[in-house]
């Protein structure tokens, strides 16, 4: 019911409300209004649970819809101009004087305008007003929270084995992505859900990766600079610049805040055999380990590894260190980030002795699994290979670097905060 209604909502792009409300609010505005029309809402105070409850008959059904909101949350989220600054969509209520035991003195439901009005029992007799649809989109039901988290906050990821990755991999025309917001949106959605996408028909100049990154937000700078050039070079500060086998890895695990996504523009591809990319969905592997090898999974999520990078670039010396597990879980226990790099794993392994051998065994299993599920793909000149660096594990097969057989890639990173931000702005325009 909820989802069907959500799908049928119409976005009012030119609505004047849009300027004053957060985009997410505006989006659901029309949905709730259509739902509530002709439905009488009953508002009541539940003193025992310290909540206000709004109940209404669900249209064309015998069931009752009940929304419950704690007093304290309602008071905290008052939308009057003393408590909320509209153009910045920010709370400005003075929390130094906030009373968490605040209670309503009177409530009133305005049926005509679908507004809940509350007079509070504080000294000033503060009055708050809330539109029904604004409340409804924030209701605390499990269903509502799931929609927000998996649709709006961060779209759910689809985990891919090797075969799935080959079938689901989507291609996007560079010029369309640059010129058309819908195409940009589709590319970002593909990158978020699959962790990989390819841009085609990219002009063969060294600046296109920057143009593409700027289309989203801005390049994430690291101690290697902004754009980086991947071509064989002697005396290199990074093994990625050797033509030998580049073992499967994630980039820059030695950054606490590792770069979110890689953009690798292939300007010149080796004509000889070799130089194929290897790509594995690390989240798929971690999920498989959780189900099939729970002990090894636990070890890789608990044992802290020192990831390091020591060197210099343009005469600037660096010594980066980040202590984190190979499989990082988020606050809710979901797989959040993979760290894996043989060269960038420090010989300082500062864990209890008893953990060391077990950890190595779990690592060996992980490496076996990622190579078994690696999609092999030689990128074509004029394409940008885009992938989620917190999720995809990538490598490259060796090739013979000679005068007549060069390989030239320009890379850049984007951060997930910026990718998601851009995605949400576009989602508010396009998603139905
Ligand atoms: Zn207020």
Describe the protein in words.
- Its cofactor is L-ascorbate; Fe(2+).
- Belongs to the gamma-BBH/TMLD family.
- InterPro entries: AlphaKG_dependent_hydroxylases, GBBH-like_N, GBBH-like_N_sf, TauD-like_sf, TauD/TfdA-like.
- Pathway: Amine and polyamine biosynthesis; carnitine biosynthesis.
- This is Gamma-butyrobetaine dioxygenase.
- With 432 residues, this protein is an alpha+beta fold.
- It has two domains: 2-153, NE0471 N-terminal domain-like, CATH 3.30.2020; 162-430, Clavaminate synthase-like (Double-stranded beta-helix).
- Helices cover 32% and strands 27% of the residues.
- It contains 14 helices and 22 strands.
- The protein has helices at 2-7, 17-20, 23-36, 71-76, 132-137, 142-153, 162-168, 174-179, 181-194, 208-216, 282-292, 294-302, 353-372, 416-430; strands at residues 41-46, 51-57, 64-70, 84-85, 90-91, 104-110, 115-120, 127-131, 171-173, 196-200, 228-230, 246-249, 261-268, 277-281, 305-313, 316-324, 327-329, 335-338, 375-377, 383-388, 392-396, 408-414.
- The protein has a six-stranded mixed sheet with strand order 9-10-20-13-22-11. A four-stranded antiparallel sheet has the order 12-21-14-19, with helices on both faces.
- Strand 2 (51-57) and strand 3 (64-70) form a beta hairpin.
- The radius of gyration is 26 Å and the shape is elongated.
- It starts with a helix and ends with a helix.
- The chain binds zinc ion (ZN).
- Residues 78, 80, 82-83, 126, 128 line the site of zinc ion (ZN).
